[in-house]
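Invent a record, attention on tokens:
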Amino acid sequence: MKRISALLLTFIFIFAIAFSQQSKLTKAPNFSLKTKDGKIVELAKLKGKVVLVNFWATWCPPCRAEIPDFIKVYNEYKSKGFEIVGIALDRGGWSVVTPFVEKNKINYPVVMGDMKIVKAYGGIEAIPTSFFIDKNGNIADRHMGMIMKSDLEKKINSLLK
């Protein structure tokens, strides 16, 4: 009898852990922000795609270092249902961001962020900070710091399945 009770408790414990992992998925806060060209990027309209929301700034060395890999990965995975939205947090606004985007030939949408979007995403403690949004619009993962290309591709592939 003790053995059955122990097995039952173990099963309940494992089920509770699995259920709590599922319930940790939270809906990504929607945003509607403009690119330098005035095009509106709305997260809700990207539902059905895997989205990397990347908070960054032009003055941030790790941010600048990961951009070339973002460009390559975007070229490779965009047709497979992957999107990147770069949210620039530069105080200088578009006057600083636009020349940087053009010089570095950033091929994914870049928008200007503000305190409202930073707060909506729980406060950004450091940049770069990236959020992986699954096809259902849930935050699947948060990554603080520079993302290595191999890690980025692993995460994208797991979410595209």
Remarks:
- The first strand starts at residue 26 and ends at 27.
- Residues 5-23 have pLDDT under 50 and may be disordered.
- The helical segments are 2-23, 61-77, 94-103, 115-120, 149-160.
- The beta strands are 26-27, 32-34, 40-42, 50-56, 82-88, 110-112, 129-133, 138-144.
